[in-house]
UniProtKB/TrEMBL annotation:
UniProt domain L,D-TPase catalytic: residue ranges: 256-387
Keyword check for Nuclease: no
A Pfam entry, by short name: Big_10
BP terms from Gene Ontology: cell wall organization; peptidoglycan-protein cross-linking; regulation of cell shape
A single GO molecular function term of this UniProt record: peptidoglycan L,D-transpeptidase activity
UniProt keyword RNA-binding present: no
Protein name: L,D-TPase catalytic domain-containing protein
Gly residues: compositionally biased ranges: 39-56
Active-site residues per Swiss-Prot or TrEMBL entry: 336, 355
Region (Disordered): 39-58
UniProt keyword list: Acyltransferase, Cell membrane, Cell shape, Cell wall biogenesis/degradation, Lipoprotein, Membrane, Palmitate, Peptidoglycan synthesis, Signal, Transferase
């Protein structure tokens, strides 16, 4: 037991003398670490991120500004989002909604500012991430978010042709808006129409609620057309915003252009440059002539009712079962089957109230008669040209008939 007490004493002695030495070493180490960041010869290397790093690197001189302010609500969908920097140039700008849909934009030539290419969507939260660099390459970053307004009044565009359809070479893109538009430039910018193979496509306004698009000449057969409606958030008139985002595609089928000669009372059907058939017709009577001009088939009905009262001929006719009817104008011009006139009428007399009539049978069940044949061979979007009628040319906005306007006027 005596040896045990003797052996404990040196151990206690070493513990008492070792503690001050350890504390002194730790203090010296702490002092050295602090001194290393002080900009002396022992300093570290450059901080490439421009933050408060080691080595005495100064903060970036680039200062980022984002409008609207972080956390802003009820932000207007256009004219408000602006990103800029002083003391440097923008290196990265990312604006996206919470679903990851990016907002495209442009940085100015001097790198000092950025603005979006288009309006923003309504009732949407956006997150902004910006990085700018000063002349020394040091970075400064800023992250913000904001939410756009929720509109009390909205509008949509009702479009034709239908998504996924195959149509004739004369088919325009026609959009009818549910509210009158007083800011047509913003609305038209939100609609893009592209074609493959590529061809210039231009829009034209008919009044304040209809916008049509077409190329200079009829579409080429086989063309694929894509329509993008990015109307959500567009202020079409004060306090009225679009609420529609949609992509529509359609295909141009074969080329079919039929020419009605009201003088000879014949219609020639030409497909892809080859004459398919010549059909005898009856056009408008002398007191109710048929419009001249290029007309596009916009609707097809195997059977429909035609009542003169709906087009200004009250009491003159009301036929409940007109077969093989294809609309050419909003005002009531059709190519349709006619079973009530004698077969000798077609090709010899003009007796209609402005329509183009083809011989047919009641019920339209006989596919061999001219009206049934033409109906079956026609697409919505096919062109019917009427000439030599003693009437005026049809108005471009009376149906899908903008082809009656020359290109210079269309694009004006």
């Amino acid at each position: 037991m005596g040896r045990t007490r003797v052996n404990l004493q040196p151990i206690r002695g070493r513990a008492r003398t070792g503690l001050p030495a350890l504390l002194l070493g730790a203090a010296l180490l702490f002092t050295t670490a602090c001194s290393a960041g002080g900009g002396g010869a022992t300093g570290g290397g450059d901080d490439k991120n421009g933050g408060a790093g080691t080595g005495g690197t100064e903060a970036s001189k680039a200062v980022v500004s984002v409008k609207p302010d972080d956390g802003a609500k009820e932000v207007a969908t256009s004219g408000v989002l602006k990103i800029s920097t002083t003391g440097g140039k923008l290196a990265t700008v990312t604006v996206a909604d919470t679903k990851g849909n990016a907002v495209e934009g442009r940085t100015s030539a001097d790198g000092a500012s950025w603005e979006p290419d288009r309006h923003l969507a309504s009732a949407t939260e956006y997150k902004v991430h910006v990085v700018a660099k000063d002349e020394a390459g040091r970075e400064s970053a800023k992250d913000t978010s904001f939410t756009t307004l929720t509109p009390a009044n909205t509008f949509i565009g009702q479009y034709t042709p239908e998504d996924g359809s195959t149509v004739g070479v004369g088919m325009p893109v026609s959009i009818n808006f549910s509210r009158g538009i007083t800011n047509p430039e913003a609305v038209e910018k939100a609609v893009t129409v592209t074609a493959e193979p590529s061809v210039p496509v231009e829009g034209h306004w008919f009044g304040n609620d209809r916008l049509d698009f077409r190329p200079e000449n009829y579409w080429a057969p086989g063309t694929k057309v894509t329509v993008k409606l990015a109307l959500d958030g567009v202020e079409g008139r004060p306090g009225v915003y679009g609420k529609q985002t949609r992509t529509v595609t359609f295909t141009i089928g074969r080329s079919q252009v039929s020419t009605v000669d009201a003088g000879t009372k014949q219609m020639q059907v030409v497909r892809d440059g080859q004459v398919l058939k010549n059909l005898p017709i009856t056009a408008g009577a002398p007191s109710t002539t048929t419009y001249n001009g290029q007309m596009v088939i916009s609707e097809k009905y195997e059977v429909t009712r035609m009542n003169g009262a709906t087009v200004g001929f009250g009491g003159e006719y009301d036929i409940a079962d007109v077969p093989h009817a294809m609309r050419l104008s909003n005002s009531g011009t059709f190519v349709h089957g006619n079973y009530w006139a004698s077969s000798g009428t077609f090709g010899s007399e003009n007796v209609s109230h402005g329509c183009v009539g083809l011989r047919d049978v009641r019920g339209g069940g006989n596919g061999d008669v001219p009206a049934a044949w033409f109906f079956n061979e026609s697409l919505i979007g096919d062109v019917v040209v009427v000439k030599n009628s003693k009437d005026k040319q049809i108005a471009p906005d009376n149906g899908l008939n903008g082809w009656n306007m020359d290109w210079a006027e269309w694009t004006r």
